[in-house]
Amino acid sequence: MTGEIPLVVVAFKTVTLVLGGLITYFAAKAALKSRSRELAYLAIGFGTVTSGSLLAGVADQLLGLDARAALAFENAVTMVGFAVVAYSLYVASQSSLVGR
Predict the structure, then answer these.
(1) Degrees (nearest 5) of the Cα angle 85, 50, 83?
(2) Which parts pass through the membrane (predicted)?
């Protein structure tokens, strides 16, 4: 470990990973069931955000990556994930306008 992190941070990260995993799972399940491209993008976006958080924590705590580099990586992956989530919502809004 590269340093001590407060237990509350570990608890928050754990809950974030569990909730992000659940959102990703349910969005992917709904996308498969409905064959919805929008829900598939939503699942990919949340999966990206969640996996980025996990990978940054692993890189920091287990691989000894500098904490600032791990934080920058996590924020970059979060940004990409949220861009995909935003795109999924944009595609959904456009397809609902076309369907009218």
Answers:
(1) 25
(2) 6-27, 39-59, 71-92
CB 27 within 8 A of CB 43: yes
The span from the CA of 68 to the CA of 87, in Å, is 29
Is 90 exceeded by the pLDDT of residue 43?
Answer: yes
Mean pLDDT of 73-91: 95
User: Residue by residue, what is the 3-state secondary structure of the chain?
Assistant: CCCCCCHHHHHHHHHHHHHHHHHHHHHHHHHHHHCCHHHHHHHHHHHHHHHHHHHHHHHHHCCCCCHHHHHHHHHHHHHHHHHHHHHHHHHHHHHHHHCC
Tell me, what amino acid is at 24?
Answer: T
Write out the residue range of the structural domain in which residue 75 sits. 33-98
